[in-house]
UniProtKB/TrEMBL annotation:
Cleaved signal peptide residues: none
Organism this protein belongs to: Drosophila rubida
Residue stretches in coiled coil: 20-47
Pfam families for the chain: BEN
GO molecular function: DNA binding
BEN domain sequence ranges: 58-155
Annotated protein name in UniProt: BEN domain-containing protein
Gene3D superfamilies xref list: BEN domain (1.10.10.2590)
Superkingdom of the organism of origin: Eukaryota
Keyword line: Coiled coil
Length: 164
């Protein structure tokens, strides 16, 4: 007798064993398929040139391969500008800033504040530039600030008011 159910021990054994074996077999098969899918996804994401994109930093920021090959590597400022435009795009650079704090002009003239650029992507750009040039992080961040300001000014002059 089973103390918890008050039934004989072998009463459900025959029917439940067959069901449990088939259930376990199906479960093992599904777990194997899930594991294979996860491994395929990891393999696709790990390829640096997969689907026309290149990973430029340790955080996994991707950039189109053609834009990466067109970067001007003669100076760290030019390389940083090209990387920012390739990763973020002109409109995002115009509507975002490096730190997200309101500037003097925004406070004085009651303008909307701009959003912050994604920090992981900024770190990847810094890492990529520092791997090519012997330059400190502050210099690269200064170039990124200038790129954001220039992009905002360019869109204002072109007549497309950046929407914040």
């Amino acid at each position: 007798m089973n103390k918890t159910t008050q039934t004989p021990r072998g009463f459900y054994k025959d029917s439940s064993d067959k069901f449990m074996r088939s259930f376990r077999a199906k479960l093992d098969q599904l777990e194997g398929q899930l594991l294979q899918l996860k491994l395929k996804r990891r393999a696709n994401n790990a390829k640096p040139g997969g689907k026309g994109k290149i990973i430029i930093g340790p955080n996994g920021t991707r950039m189109p391969k053609k834009l990466y090959e067109g970067i001007n590597w003669t100076c760290y400022k030019k390389a940083t500008r090209d990387l920012c435009k390739g990763v973020f795009g002109i409109k995002m650079l115009a509507t975002h800033t490096l730190c997200g704090r309101p500037g003097r002009g925004a406070v004085i003239h009651n303008r909307k504040t701009k959003q912050k650029l994604p920090p992981t992507q900024v770190q990847d750009i810094e890492h990529c530039v520092q791997s090519q040039f012997k330059v400190d992080q502050l210099a690269i961040r200064g170039v990124i600030r200038q790129v954001c300001a220039d992009a905002g000014r360019t869109l204002k002059i072109a007549g497309e008011e950046p929407k914040v």
